[in-house]
Amino acid sequence: MKTTSESASTSEPGIPDVPDIVAYPEEAVRRYRAAGFWSDRTVAQEFRAVADKYPDHAAVLTPDARLTYAELDRRTDRIAIGLRDLGLRPGDPVLLQVTNNLWTVLAWYGLLKAGLVPVATLAQHRRHEIVEIARQAEPVAHLIEPGFRSHDLVALAAEVAREQPSLRWLLTIGTASPPPGAVALETLEAVGRPDDPAVARAVVEEIQKAIPADSLAVFQLSGGTTSIPKLIPRLHAEYWYNSRAYAEAIDMDSTSCFAHLLPLVHNAGIVCGLHSAHSVGGCFALASPEPDQLKSIAGHITHTMMSPPLTSMVTKEPGLLESLDALRVFIWVLGPLPADIVAAFETPSRRIIQMFGMTEGLCLVTPTASPPEIRHHTVGTPISPLDEVRVYAPGTEDSVPPGTQGELCTRGPYTVRGYFRAPERNAEAFTSDGFYRSGDIVVEVPENGLSFYRFEDRIKDLINRGGEKVNAAEIENLLVRHPAVERAAVVAMPDERLGERCCAFIVPKFGAQAPQLGEVQRFLDEIGVAKFKWPERIEACEELPLTNVSKIDKRALRVRITDILAAERPR
Questions:
Q1: Cα separation of 328 and 348, whole Å?
Q2: pLDDT tens column, 528-541
Q3: Is residue 328 classed as helix, strand or coil in its secondary structure?
């Protein structure tokens, strides 16, 4: 696949030679290499170096398995050779639809060692998404987990193969009896040649020598909800550095054990979980978000990332919170940090920090040494000294001062310079000098010479009530202070007179009832909130819907309230 210069990404309409991957400018690459951030090794070579340094350390821990670095290294060598012998070649993309288990980790490194390019789709994706993603990526193989409970991945793979001519192989994990025509990775490992680990290692090293460190490693997916996700090309050098910088920012080392309960095969799972732990010789603990699974590994966990549904599970399940006695760093994601979560989880030996990231690159973290007002009320500061962040007035390239809301725009040593084969989208999503427009509204908060950022909203996540703009995140942050509210999402509901009004979807705390509208309005009145910002309808719910990247699905909530109002309208 061709990599083009940044300047070439603005080629004239009608030119058929559309750029595939927008390259980092040469001057930027020189700076990243001079700083020691970009190495000359691939992800597989970086992993091998860590495995050689810590061969007997635990590399992966699941509820039913434990592998050392040496074991993981040897087994994935054999898988890589099996894939090569099957006919797959370096640079070939492979669709992944797998879940949180040991074989997903084995498959991931086996693919990378074979020089293949994982396309990190989710098992939850259906035909609508996968056919379009396959059209963009042109994969040669589709790796699935046939036992997936939500829908039939075998039938889905057959449908996709009929529509995508590039697909030649169906690969499986997690089954002793793959469907007709499929090849199990377990079989490739078992029968792989050569038998001698040293010879297998040499074969993989030969494959890796031919792969430039600044070439394509992985396709991740954009987190958009209004259209099919765009492909995000992540390169070997920047992808591993992203993980290494994250590990340093959250105080991980070779004694750490990072537990990941969210889906593994997307950017947070790989960068913040698997690769970050492995960049420092630590252990990566993997489980599904179920109490019994978490209990089985709880005593080993030093670091973990938590979302509202996970914290709810931990606090409700008897004894589960107490079993996390080794936990030192609790990383909060997805929304404002409620005071009761701080009270439940933070102790003298355990810090709650926040992180904010995007699949396109930039990651913000609140360091563990930060004061509580920073850790609890901002989403962090950039993890790399060469990250560049600007806060622009939305839709412009005009900076706004600290304390003022604006769009977070960024570029740096692990933030991409363009989506794959998407010149029109790139023209919208990047500034004239290569800053990625995140679409997130933030406020810069200076503190001790650093810039921290407070997340406010998405740009389009505003309610326009008769010309008065209401920031949904602002009201959500206030609602979770109500003693009966666990989580809240505020969206626009259509109104004939004012255009839009505020509707609040509320998840009540365990054992509580969601507050009624009058109670919510009195609560906001008592703390001095302008009346035009008050929700004018409350919808109680057990959970808030999430997108495939675990963000609250505001679009689904807007559709839901629109449908409810339509059903209530007199016929």
A1: 10
A2: 787 888 999 999 99
A3: coil
**133 backbone dihedrals φ, ψ, rounded to 5°:** -65, -40
Average pLDDT in the chain: 92
What pLDDT sits at residue 548?
Answer: 78
Q: What are the distances in angstroms from CA 516 to CA 463, 490, 523, 528? A: 21, 15, 11, 19
Indicate whether 74 pLDDT > 70.
yes
User: What's residue 129's pLDDT?
Assistant: 82
Residue 347 has φ and ψ, to the nearest 5°, of -135, 175
**Domain presence at residue 59:** no
Given a cut of 80, whether residue 381 has pLDDT beyond it is: yes
13 and 115 both lie in a single domain: yes
pLDDT per position as a tens digit, 434-473: 999 998 999 999 999 999 999 987 786 778 787 566 889 8
Residue positions counted in the chain? 571
Beta carbons of 546 and 553 less than 8 angstroms apart: yes
- CATH code for the domain of 486: 3.30.300.30
Look at residues 469, 488, 480, 481 and name the one whose alpha carbon lies nearest to residue 530.
Answer: 469
- How far apart are alpha carbons 440 and 394 in whole angstroms? 9
Residue 308, token pair as written in the block = 């509202």
- Does residue 325 sit in the same domain as residue 474? no
Instruction: Confirm whether 413 is domain-assigned.
Output: yes
Contact call for residues 217 and 117 (beta carbons, < 8 A): yes
Q: How many domains does the chain have?
A: 3
Q: Which domain holds residue 535?
A: 463-568
Residues 6 or more apart from 249 whose CB is under 8 A from it?
A: 363, 365, 367, 383
